[in-house]
Design brief:
mainly alpha; N-utilizing Substance Protein B Homolog, Chain A
Length: 149
């Protein structure tokens, strides 16, 4: 059985493929990640489900990344970086994975699969998203405590 890190890597690879085909060929995305015999059908299903969910939510991710980096809208980003950011944004917003883990894993994917500058770019954007997610998780009374009487 694949680890969460393995599933995330497979999902990133499938998401990259979905982006290339504009989501019209999910079977091609599955074929792209089936190349190794070490993954079970369940592993592949989990990874593909994560990739499809991130792809379906790409507009939210793209909008947020454009707000955070207006000089680097998604159409100007490297396809690998765009896939990493979309996957990480989806995972952070879904709440299924601790957000700090998501940021760390995204930076690791950028180190492994993208350019020399990509890890810092991915980290900078996701750090801003992380701050928003963490701030939203804190009850408003803790963000701005009431003055003591």
């Amino acid at each position: 059985m694949a680890s969460p890190r393995d599933i995330r890597r497979l999902a990133f690879q499938a998401l990259y493929q979905l982006d290339l085909t504009d989501g019209t060929d999910p079977q091609a995305a599955r074929c792209a990640i089936e190349q190794s015999a070490e993954w079970t059908a369940d592993d592949l299903d989990r990874a593909l489900a994560l990739a499809v969910a991130a792809f379906e939510n790409r507009h939210d991710s793209d909008q947020r990344m454009t707000e955070l980096a207006p000089d680097w809208p998604t159409h100007r980003q490297a396809a690998v970086d765009r896939a990493i950011l979309r996957l990480a944004h989806y995972e952070m917003m879904s709440g299924q994975t601790p957000p700090k883990v998501v940021v760390n894993e995204a930076v690791e994917l950028a180190k492994r699969f993208s350019t020399e500058r990509s890890p810092s770019f991915v980290n900078a954007l996701l750090d801003k998203v992380l701050k928003d997610v963490l701030a939203a998780a804190i009850p408003s009374s803790e963000q701005h405590p009431a003055p003591e009487l």
